[in-house]
Amino acid sequence: MHMQRDNEGIRLPKLLGLAVAGATLLAGMVVLPATQASADEDSYGFSTEDNFKPGDLDDSIQPQLTVTKYFSLVEGYAATGSANDVNNFKNDKDLVPAKGIRFNVFEVAPNGSATNISDIVASDTSTWKMKDGTQKFVAETDGQGVIKQWYAANTDGSPNKANPLQFPKGANHYFILQEDQKNSPAFANDNPQKLDITKYAPSANAFFGLPYRTNGSNTDSTPGYIYNLHLFPKNRHSSAFAKTVQGVADAKTGEAKASRFAKAGDKISYKLSQTIFNTTNPVSKDGKLDTHELKGSFADLRIVDRMSSSLSANNDFTVKIDYKDNTNADKSLPLTQGESGQYKLSTPTENPDRILKTEASPHMFPDNPENVSYFQFDFFGGNATDTDGFIKKLQGLPATVLQLDITYTATVTGKGDSTGTDGVANDAASDFTENTTADGNPTDPIHEHTNVVNAVLVFGSIKSEKDGYAALPKTEYRLVDPGNQDKYLASDGQFYAPKALPEDAVFYSATANEDGLVVFAGLPIFDTPASGTSPKAATNTVPAGIKWNVLETKTPSGWRSPGFSFQQVTYDNYKGKTVDELVQELGPHATIQPDYSKLSFGKFDVPATTITKNPIKFNNENISKYLEHYAVTDADSPLALPLTGGRGILLLLVVGALLMGGALYARSRRNNAARA
User: Where are the domains of the chain?
Assistant: First the structure.
C-alpha cells in the first residue's frame, strides 16, 4: 500500500500491530498453520527457502531469520512463518513493503513471574529478559521490506555492518523480535522519505524458537524443523482516511506491472478509503464518523483528490461501501452520483473549502499550486429522517465498520508543470462533520500523499547573481536528441520532430514553478534504447548509453534564452540494475535521479554551494543543479548577441546607428577642415 509522507514523507496515520503466529506460545510446542501443499513433496508443503528438514533437530545446520515488514490498509494475513506466505500477498494491493524499519532480536530467558519458557508473553516485557551471555541482533528493512542479514549493535543501537552475526545452532534457543520504532531510519529527520512517527504504532513483538519445530503439510504431516524462519510483521492502517496506489499498468500492453514503476503513458490505479462506523450509540466529537451521525444534504463528508500535471484522471471513478457481514463475507454496496444519488462529483479550479471551515484553515489543502486538477466528492445525499433513505440503509447493514472506497485510474502525462515532490505524485484530503477535537473545535483535514517509483530529472531555473539568484518561473524545457535539438524525447524512449510524434506517444516537458524548480518525471529509463540503436522492447533493466540533452524551449519576456541544448542526462550510474534492485536500494517510493556530474550548463551553471539563501528543494533535499539566466539588458551575458525579444535587437540597432552617425559626423568635420 502506498502510504504517504510529507508529503513525503508518506502519510500514514496510527497503525495497529498484528501478532505473528506463535507469538505467545512455546516455540517447540506450537505448530504453524499449514500452508498450501507444494508440487515438490520434498519440501513437505514449505518453500525451499524455509529450509525445512524432516525428523530430529540437526544441530549442524545454521539457522536463519528472515523478516518482511508490510503496511496494510485493512486486517492482513497472520504471519505463519513460511516463505510461501509471500504468495498470499502478491494480489493484495493494500500491502506495501516498509523500508528503513529497525528490528531488534533478543535471545531470551524467563523473568519475573515467568518461571518457564512457556510462561513468556511477547507483549509483556516483564516476563522475559535477554539471556545472560548473549547479544542483541539488529537490522533494518531494505526497499522490499526485507531483512536477511543481522548484525551486532553499535553503541547508538544501529547495525554494525562490519560485524555480521549468525544465530546459534542447536536446540533450546528462543527469541523475541521487537520493532525499534524510535530509532528507525524511516522516521529520521534527514531521511528524504521521512515518515511521520506520530502516525505509526510499532508492530507487536513476536516470540519464537529457532530452529522452529513444526509439521509439514504433506499427507503424513511429517514433523521436522524450519531452519530459515520467515516472519511477516504487518500493521493495519487505522486512520479514518487513506489513499493507496493499487498498481501500475504498462502503456503498451495494458498489463499490470510486477513493480510500481511508472513512466509517461502508463496508467496508475488508485483507491481512496474512508472509514465510517455503524454503532448504535456513537460518541459525539470523537473524530469518528458514524452512520447515526449522518444528516444528509451532501454535507457529511468531503473527499478531494488533487492531481498534478504529471497525472490525468481517466474519469472512471467507482464509488461503493465495502464491509464484512455477520458471517465475515465480503460485501459491497454501490453508490450513485447526482442530486438524487448518494454523492456529488465536481471539479473546482481552486483549492476547495473544507466542510468544517475555519479562519485559520479554510481550505482542503494548505497550498494551492498552479496547474493542478481537483476532484471533489461530497457525501451523502438524502436526509437522515427518510425512513426508506440511503442513510437508513447504511444504518441497517450487518457490520459495525464500513469502508467507503473510491477507485479510479490516472494516466501519467509526461508534463512537469506542477510535479509533486516525488515526481509522479498526488495528494488527497478528507474532512467530515466529526473531524473535531473533544471540545468540538475543527481539526485539519486528514491528508494523504501517494507516489510511485519513477525516474526524474531535477534542476533549478534562476536569475543571475545581480538578481540574487532568484527563481525564474515559467521557463519551459524539453529533452532532446544530442545530435538534433529539434527532435524531442517521447514516452516510447525515442526522439521525434513535433509533426512526427506517433499517436500512442507523448513528449516530455517541464515548466519551472514559482520556486524555480524544474522536474521531468516518469522518464523511460527502463525501456529506452541506447542512443543510435533501433527500438527494442522493455527489459526492466537500465541500459547503458542513455543520453539526452536539455533544451530551454520558452523563456519569460525580458530574459535571454541560452539558445542551445545542454549535455548530458545519463543514468549510467544505475546501468544494469533492474527495477527490483533499485526498489530494494532506494525504497518502494523512490525517485531515480541521473548522474548530475555529467550534466553541464557551461557558462550558465551556478554551483549549488553558491545558493546559500533559500536553496531549492526536491524530495526534502537541496537540489544540485542550477541554470542561470540573464536579462536582455545585461552586458555580462555569456551570449554574444542579446536577441531575446524585440527590445534587445532594437537597442543593438540604436547603438549601431548612433555609432555610425558619430563616425559620419566626424568624417564630415575632417573633410570640411581639409577644404578650408
Answer: 4-237, 241-451, 454-629, 642-676
Using CB atoms within 10 A of its CB, is residue 5 exposed (0-12), middle (13-18) or buried (19+)? buried
The owner of cell 524531442 is: 488
CATH 1.10.10 fits 241-451, yes or no: no
- The pTM for the full model equals 0.80
Helices within 282-336 (DSSP H only):
none
- Taking only the tens place, the pLDDT of each residue in 394-452 is 999 999 999 999 999 999 999 999 988 889 989 999 999 999 998 889 999 999 888 89
Tell me the C-alpha distance between 632 and 639, whole Å. 10
3-state helix, strand, coil in the chain (%, to 5): 15, 35, 50
Confidence at 200, pLDDT banded by 50, 70, 90:
confident
Overall fold of domain 454-629: Immunoglobulin-like (2.60.40)
Domain 4-237 shares a fold with domain 454-629: yes
pLDDT in tens, 74-92: 554 445 567 777 776 766 7
Burial per residue of 611-638, b for 16 or more beta-carbon CB atoms within 10 angstroms, e otherwise:
beeebbebbbeebbbbbbbbbbebeebe
Q: What pLDDT, on a 0 to 100 scale, did the predictor assign at position 662?
A: 56
> For residue 172, how far is the Cα from the chain centroid?
42
**Fold that domain 4-237 belongs to in CATH:** Immunoglobulin-like (2.60.40)
